[in-house]
Structure formats: structure tokens, C-alpha cells
Amino acid sequence: MVDAALQNGTAHRESLFEAFARRLPDGRRYGVVVGTGRLLELISEFRFEEAELEWLRANRVVRPETLDWLADYRFRGDVWGYREGEVYFPGSPLLTIQATFAEAVMLETLVLSTLNFDSSVASAAARMVSVALGRPLAEMGSRRTGERSAVAAARAAYIAGFDATSNLEAGRTWGIPTMGTAAHAFTLLHDSEEAAFRAQVEAFGPKTTLLVDTYDIRQGVETAVRVAGTGLGAVRIDSGDLPAVVAGVRDQLDGLGAVDTKITVTSDLDEFTIAGLSGAPVDSYGVGTSVVTGSGSPAAGMVFKLVARRDDAGEWVSVAKASASKASVGGRKNAARRLDSTRTAREELVFIGDGPGGEAEFEAGTSLRPLMVRLMADGVADAAYLGPEGTAAARAHRAEAMQELPIEAFRLGRGDAAIPTTYR
Amino acid sequence: MVDAALQNGTAHRESLFEAFARRLPDGRRYGVVVGTGRLLELISEFRFEEAELEWLRANRVVRPETLDWLADYRFRGDVWGYREGEVYFPGSPLLTIQATFAEAVMLETLVLSTLNFDSSVASAAARMVSVALGRPLAEMGSRRTGERSAVAAARAAYIAGFDATSNLEAGRTWGIPTMGTAAHAFTLLHDSEEAAFRAQVEAFGPKTTLLVDTYDIRQGVETAVRVAGTGLGAVRIDSGDLPAVVAGVRDQLDGLGAVDTKITVTSDLDEFTIAGLSGAPVDSYGVGTSVVTGSGSPAAGMVFKLVARRDDAGEWVSVAKASASKASVGGRKNAARRLDSTRTAREELVFIGDGPGGEAEFEAGTSLRPLMVRLMADGVADAAYLGPEGTAAARAHRAEAMQELPIEAFRLGRGDAAIPTTYR
Predict the structure, then answer these.
(1) pLDDT tens for each residue of B391-408
(2) A173 CB near a chain B CB, below 8 Å?
(3) Could you say which of A8, A149, A213 has the minimum Cβ distance to residue B149?
(4) CB-based contact B42 A4, cutoff 8 Å
């Protein structure tokens, strides 16, 4: 596309692209947009290095003039969008990029990979957080997604309200609290379960978490308390998705005098099994596969569409494709969330043009919360959205935005978006 | 785990870990193991750099003695496994790592991330290849998975039989044929569909592929042939999952004299919609979301378990955890596929111990194909499995292995593994 558009000059037409989701994943009531902070860093660094240019040249992928253009490439345009951690609905204009056509279209795959993957994880994670009812959640799914995606998944889950990750690189890069755990292999390495527990307690003290289900859970709990004493920090049950098993371990711990020893549960948990454990005496959860794979929706379904461009006279022209099943809405967008007098979200308003404005039209007692912020100006990202600070801010913003959701949004069953999206 | 095991010396016990899948994804009949070649390169390069060590030190994640051990870390052990591209079944010992406990357990996340993600993509892709009935398939899903996973996904789909990818980095790194396409944005950038088609034909000649469904498909096809002539290479329909739409375009092209113009179809295709188009005049397919997300099974469900270790006397001890729902089989494994006289696979034989051997036990006319090869010796990978050559070899091996599958393996509906796994 860039090769052909550079040849006829249309590559330099100023253009506006928009990333949005036509629908929420499979019966979900809301989504959480994550990936924005990572994306801004990736856009800032996006260059074609000599090895890449050489490969394009050797394989005649583009013309020599286009290679020269790629060699000089860096993004110099503007980006607006929803703040990272914001709740979204179908049609929410999550990210808009204004630049020349060639400069902006070059970023399509990067924009969508980042937003689709990270938002898929965050949207699933947010549901787990809401059913965990305040009990801490640790992300432990690195092994169930690509080795680089694992770091992004840890970040997305944290922004969505998880408390820690087992991914140390995510701790180092994004400032996320990390935690570790002993696997069954550690027990099996030793000559007995008791020897393994003793080694762990010697290394980390009695406040450690002992994995008690390598052999027999009842025997494991007994050994754990005998080795660590009643001050044992916690036991982990990796087959603890059954409420009765957890209740049995609690009774046993209490009977042994280990009344302050906590129970952490891991075992292919998802939002449904976590909800099913809400009445059981679980103190914390570790979640793997389901969170890093978006719990059934591994790609958030976001698309990146040209919505406006200048014509030869310099005038902006709204554009949109017309295919029946995949129509899009052309034009520059702005967005605001309509809140009622209790600050509960009631409507996602997408203004075509430069809106909002016209607030007088709305019912008394309602307010509009603007949703879009400037993320990059002339190719320079706003530092507030980057790095560990941006990640922490996104997590805080997600917590605030979630508080506005109507109670229906927290249903686990399939259904429609919690609030309607209206174009104005 | 490593920190505690270094402290009591068990870290240095020679250990054998095994990666395997307890079950196939959700009703599938077979899996295709991919990721091995990437993994061997990643293991070879696995080091702790100063910035990482400094972060571990500053956050007191491990003791200073363990930091010294990590600073010297490089893998020096042995790896055996199924050849990349091999078909697998529940319990197939896909990868075994023999090294000290600490050296091997350090690789767990890397092993599983790589095998789970890549094999998930390959196992879905192989089903699409078999229902495409020889029509070429292009992988176009980079935007639907993490930005680095996208490169791995392109490679996995290619090994599984896809013909090309839109991911140029996968072309550069792994030697995979690449292709490009014009998006709706390219049409919308121009003042008319005709102007867009003209720009594309001027840049690439009439053998290009024109996207005809930005506005009205019938009008688009007419304009495409008028601009490019009856020698037009192909039209792409991005809403072409309806057989009737494809048939209508074929009739129209033929009526316009463009009898050699091909039709390529893209539109959220998966193995089921591809099968549904088998009677329609489609010439090639482009597949995105479903292939890079494993078509409903985004993680292949592989696990990495300690199966044997030496004791203090230097004797090997088989180990396995006993939890009811997640039991594993201890001991060193070897594996072979039993083929009948027509070279059709009938059984996955997993030998506990050093097997095979004892071939006389098998029925006359059957043969055993050994499945495991040495992948790394003393930390050095066998070069035959690396880089573009290893990728091409894996693709060829997959084609051969698939030919052994019984016809039942190609059912799309849910069911059991195509052949049973037997432990001996």
C-alpha cells in the first residue's frame, strides 16, 4: 500500500485512522482498554534498521524510492485516545492517529497487536477481579502465552486489578509487584515431602507458602504445620477448585492451631471457578491460562480504519467502507460517558466531528465525562502515560472507571454491553 | 525454588524434566508440535544480563550466592524430543531435558511458552490446511496476537502447511514466503475506487490482487476488470465467507472475460468456514484471527514435569505427583508410533525406561517409527533444527507425519484422539 501510494503521491495526504471494537468479546458487558502505554513506547522506537532494509531490498518487496522513505521513517504525527485502563464499549474510539497516510498506515499492525492482546487479557482479568471480592489475585500464566506476550499479559492483568505477577521481567520493566511459588518439582526433587518443606522453610522462614498437594493433601497439611509450626504463612492447593477441599483444609489447619495460616488456590481458575469459590475460605488466588488467553476471547476484536483524509484542496473528507457486515462510521470522533446523578454510567456518546459541546441537550442531573486525551504530539509521547508511572496511573484510572459501571455490568452470564453507544 | 535448592544442595541433583500434553485441545483428534526450533535458539541464548541481576539484587528476590549462580548461567545439558512438525497425542513425551535440577527448572517458562503458543497455532492451522483441499492459505493474523508472538505464529502456520504470511519479519527471520494486500484504507484514501485500482495497477501491473468490496462488490468487480483488463491477477473479497457471494463474483468475472482472474477470500475464516467454502470457486484463502489464536484453543495445554532425578547415591529415581486430576507418569520415556502394513498410524507407544526394544511383541506387518531425536547435546543445539533450514525441514516432516494419520483424524467435529496412547 505504501509503495503504491508513494508512487502516485496519495501517501502524503493527511489522514485520520481510528482503532475501535465493533463488538465486545462474546457476551461481555464491558471491555478494559490496555496496551496504550506499551504502544506509545513502541511507536516512538519504530524504525527500519539496515538488516531489515537489506532484506526488503534483496527480496524486492518495495521499490528503491520506498526503501529510502522507510530508512527515514519515524512517526511524527498526533495520537489521541482513551486513557489506558478506561472501560470501553462497542464503537468507542479508543485510539486515533493523525499523520500522513503512509506514516499512519505503517503502524496498523503494531497498534492492533498491542491493543488486541493487552485488552483481551485486561478485559478478562477485570471480571476475575470483580468476582474475587477483594481477595488478592496473582497472575501466573507466563507459560501459557508467547514468551514476550507473557510480559505484556502480566502488565495488563495488573492494570485490570490483579495484585502481583510471577513474571519477574514484568516486575523489572513495569514496576509490578512480583511473587514466586514452589512447584511440585521442588517437592519431587527431595527425598520426601517433609525434606522439601524443611528446605523451603530453612530458606525463607515459616512465613513461606508450602504446596501441599503433591501426594495426599491431608498428609501434606499435617507435614507442613509440623515442619513450619503454627506460624506457617500459607498453604497452596493446586487442585483447589473444589470448595469442599478448601473447607476441609481450613478445618484441618484450624484444628492444628494454624488459625492464621492462609490458603491460596491455583488450578486452571477462571472467572467462573473463582465465583464458585466465593463462599469457600480462600485467602488468595493464582490464575494462569485463562487470564493470559482472555478467558475464551484471546483477541479483543479491535480494528483500525481510515475514517477521514484531506483531499487535494486540503479539505477533510470523511470516509467509510460500506460492506454490509463490517460497515464503519466515518469522520473524526470524540467521546464522553454520560453519568447520572449517582455518577453511574448510562450512555457512551460518540460525537462525530469535534464535539462534545451541546451539553444543554442532556437531562438535568447528568454529567458528561470526556474520554479522550492527547497521547502523542508531533511524534512525542506524553511521559505521564509511559513506564512504571504510566502503568500505575492506568491501574488507578481503571479502578475509578469501574466504579461508574452500573451493577448489570458485573453479571458473568452472556448479554449485551452494559450501556448503549450513541453516535451524535 | 532455585534459591532454596542451591542452599541445601539439591539444586545440583541431575534431573529429567518432560514436556507433554495431558489432553488435546477441546475435542481435537491430533496436535502438531511446533516451537522446538525457536526454543533451541532461545535456550542457547538464555543468560542473565547485568540489568536483570541488578534488579534481582535491589529487590532482594534471591540471595547473593544465587545471584552469582545466575550470572554464570548458561544451559549445558541435553535435550531430546519429537522432531518439530511431528504429530502428537496425549502423553507424547514432546521434549525431555536432562541437566541439574536448577539448570533445567530455570527453563520451564521458556519451554512451555514456546511450545504452548506455537503448537496451539500449528494444531489449528493443520486442520485448516486439510480442509482447504490444496488451495493455498496465507496467514494474515499478526494484528490479532502480541506483536512478537505474531512472528512466531507466522512460522507455526507455515510449518503446519500454510503457504505464505503477511508478516515480513517472519520472512526475514525464518525464510517464509511473504505476501501483501491492499486494505480498504487504500481504496478510501483515493478519490474513487477506480482511482485506487488505477494506482495499484500502475504500481504492480495487472497481475495484482484488487480488493473489490469496499463499496458494492458487483460494481467493484466491474471497475477492477475495466481498469486492469481481463488479465487481472485476482480479486479479494473480505466479506467472502458466503459461498453464494463467491459464486456470483466468479460468474461476473467469467462474463466479463476475466476467466483466469482468481478469487481470494478473507473474512474471519476458520476451519469450519473454510470447509463450508469447499464447493465454492475460491482459489485461495487468507486467515487471520482464528489461526493465530489456535481457533478456540490459544494454549496447547502442555506441562513440564520432573519425572526422574538422581538420589544421593547417584541412582535414578522415577518421580510423579499423585494428585487425582493431574497425575503424571514418572520415569524416563521414549516413544514410537506403531504403523500398520499400509503405514497408517494405529498407536502412540510411550516406553517407560529406555525402550523401544521388544519389537517382536507386535503383530506381523506393523512397524514402529521412532519419534524422539537428540536436539541438544551438552548445551549445543543440533544445527539441523535451527533457522530457516530447520523451519523448512519441520514443514516437510509435518507433511510426512500427517500422511500416516488415519482418515478419522481429519474429522472436524469434536471427538477423541485419532489413535490411543499406550504406556509400556
Answers:
(1) 999 999 999 999 999 999
(2) no
(3) A149
(4) no
Q: How many contacts (CB atoms, under 8 Å) link A and B?
A: 241
Instruction: Tell me the mean pLDDT per 10 residues along chain A, length 424.
Output: 95 97 92 98 97 97 96 98 98 97 98 98 98 97 97 98 98 97 95 97 96 96 98 92 93 98 95 96 97 96 95 92 73 94 96 59 78 97 98 98 97 95 94
Q: Which three cell numbers stand for residue A169?
A: 521481567
What is the rounded CA–CA span in Å between residue B320 and residue B304?
12
Q: Say if strands A95-100 and A78-82 run parallel, antiparallel, or are unpaired.
A: antiparallel
CATH class (in words) of the domain with range B2-122+297-423: alpha beta
Contacts of B224 (CB under 8 A, 6+ apart): B197, B210, B212, B232, B235
Say if residue A383 is exposed, middle or buried (CB neighbours under 10 Å; 0-12, 13-18, 19+): exposed
Beta bridge partners of A346: none
Domain with CATH 3.20.140.10 in chain B: 2-122+297-423
* Chain A neighbors of B209, CB-CB under 8 A: none
Show residues of chain A in contact with B41, CB under 8 Å.
none
Superfamily holding A181-282: Aldolase class I (3.20.20.70)
Which residues in chain A are contacts of B240 at CB distance < 8 A?
Answer: none
- How is A311-351 classified by DSSP, letter by letter? -TTS-EEE-----GGG----S-EEEEEEE-TT--EEEEEEE
Per-residue pLDDT, averaged over B176-193, amounts to 96
Mutation target vs B (from A16, A147, A317; most B CBs, 10 A cutoff): A147
DSSP annotation of A363 reads P
Is there a contact between A305 and B185 if contact means CB atoms under 8 Å apart? yes
Q: A19-47 burial, b if ≥16 CB within 10 A, otherwise e? A: bbbeebbeebbbbbbbbbbbbbebbeeee
List every span in chain A annotated with CATH 3.20.140.10.
2-122+297-330+373-423
Interface with A, mutate which of B188, B194, B305, B328 (most A CBs under 10 A):
B188
CB of A178 closer than 8 Å to CB of A166: yes
For CATH 3.20.20.70, the residue range(s) in chain B are 133-292
Cβ–Cβ of B149/A144 closer than 8 Å? no
Cell numbers linked to A25:
468479546
Q: Could you say which of A113, A143, A202 has the minimum Cβ distance to residue B146?
A: A113
User: Whole-angstrom Cα distance, residue A115 to residue A37?
Assistant: 10
CB contacts, 8 Å: A1 with chain B: 180, 182-183, 185-186
For the domain made up of B133-292, give the CATH fold. Answer: TIM Barrel (3.20.20)
Q: Does domain A2-122+297-330+373-423 have CATH number 3.20.140.10?
A: yes
- Say if CB B145 and CB A293 are below 8 A apart: no
Residue B374, min C-alpha distance to chain A (Å)? 24
Nearest to A227 by CA among A249, A202, A252: A202
Q: For residues B401 and B389, is the Cβ–Cβ distance under 8 A? A: no
DSSP state of B268: S
Quote the CA–CA distance of A162 and A389 in Å, as a whole number: 17
Distance (Å) from the C-alpha of residue B350 to the closest C-alpha of chain A?
22
